[in-house]
Amino acid sequence: MSRSHLAGALALYSELHDGRPLDLPRRWLYRLAGERLGVVVLDISGRVVGAAFYGFSRRDLREGRVHSSFSGVHPSHRGRGLATELRRSAILHFHANGVRGYSARISVDNAASLKPSLRLGFRIIERYRDPSSGEQRCYLVCDFATDYFTEGQLAKDKLGRAAQAPEVEAQAQALTTDRQRNAAS
């Protein structure tokens, strides 16, 4: 993400979080290192319509992974695969720069984020209840060398990730059903 797109990415973050801005330390981090830790999607007029910010937790540093701290697409541009392309771009960027993998925390009821993550090769490592929001969430990882398949690899491997689409759909549905069952009890 170039510095010229940072204001648009921060505005999108705020819009998707009910007007709350990104916290000051992370705003400074992305101002200083946004070209290495941020990805944006622009519409035809050059406006930021998708953004993703990355960082490192202690766990991620220990395991050689980068962590997705925010990924979002403007509502008027959803359903077009932009969030998947944000993730794919980040995977390619971080892999090329020596990072071993990628982690994310996604709410169980966010099927729009879970499905493409699972299709790209992310694995659910743990499920937990977020103590601050009470939401059921998943901690997912994608280790580039073993989990992520490029489009070329998928084309060569006819039984690859494409064959897992029903399994991914079933996994996402099972998570949503579990969440609904837990909410009812």
From TrEMBL:
<dbReference type="GO" id="GO:0016747">
    <property type="term" value="F:acyltransferase activity, transferring groups other than amino-acyl groups"/>
</dbReference>
<keyword id="KW-0808">Transferase</keyword>
<dbReference type="InterPro" id="IPR000182">
    <property type="entry name" value="GNAT_dom"/>
</dbReference>
<protein>
    <submittedName>
        <fullName>GNAT family N-acetyltransferase</fullName>
    </submittedName>
</protein>
<dbReference type="InterPro" id="IPR016181">
    <property type="entry name" value="Acyl_CoA_acyltransferase"/>
</dbReference>
<feature type="domain" description="N-acetyltransferase">
    <location>
        <begin position="1"/>
        <end position="145"/>
    </location>
</feature>
<dbReference type="Pfam" id="PF00583">
    <property type="entry name" value="Acetyltransf_1"/>
</dbReference>
